[in-house]
Amino acid sequence: MIDNVTEELYNELEPKTFFNKILVTAEEIIANSTSPRRKIKRPWNQYMIFKKNFSKLIKNTNIPWKGNMKSVTRVSGHIWSKASKKEKESFCILAQKARRLHKKKHPDFFYAPINRKFQELFIHYNGPSSSSSPNANSESEQQDDISSVQVQQEQRQEQEQQEREQQEQREQREQQFNNQQIPQPIPQPIPQPIPQPMPEPVQLPPQFVLDFPYINEHQNYEVYSPELYFPECLQNLYFYPNYC
C-alpha cells in the first residue's frame, strides 16, 4: 500500500524535490517551539524538520491525503528511511542550527520524557485528572513522538551497522595476520672438514726393513709392514744405525 501511495506522490512531485527544496527555516521552527498555555517544546530533530517541509511541499498539490497527518507521517517516514546520508545532510545542518537557537532562547530547558507505563498505572489507581482529558495531546504531537522514535531506531540501526562493519574489518585483519607466513631462519650448514689425500705407500729399501714391531707414538698401534709411512725414517736415513 505504501508503494502505491509513494508512486502517486512521485507523479505529482519529483523525488529529489523533497531534499533540494527547503521551505522551513530555523527561526520558524523556534517560533513554534513555545505556546502561552503549554510548556516549552523540545527542539526538532532532522526528521521532524523534513516532515514539516514535506507537508508544505504537498500542500498545493492534488494529493487526496495531504491533510491527513497520519498518512503524511507514514509516507514521509518511508521516504526518509530510503534517503541517503547526503540527501539528509541539509536537514541535519538545519536541525543543528535550530538546536543552537533553542538553547540560546531557553538556556534552562531540560527535556524529560514522560514514562507512559507509570502514567497509565497512576490513572488506573487514581482515576483520570479533572484538569486533563484523553485528547490533551493533539494528533500532530503524537505523530511527532512516533516520528522521533522512528529516527532513533534508524540511528540505532546505523550505529549497529557501523559496529558490524568495524568488527568484520578487525576479523579480516586478524585473518590476514594469521595467514601470513612468518619467515623462519635458514639453518646454516655444519662446516665439514676438508678431506685430505692419503699419502701413497712408500717402499722402503731392504736395509730399513724391521724384524721387530715398531710402536707408533702418535697413532698408538704396532707397525709390522715396511710399506707404511714413517716420516722420521725418510728424513733421516741413519735413524737406524744398526741397519746402515
From TrEMBL:
Residues 40-110 form the HMG box domain. Gene3D superfamilies: High mobility group box domain. Keywords: DNA-binding, Nucleus. Residues 128-154 have a biased composition (Low complexity). The keyword Nucleus applies. Residues 40-110 bind DNA. This is 5313_t:CDS:1. InterPro entries: HMG_box_dom, HMG_box_dom_sf. It comes from Diversispora eburnea.
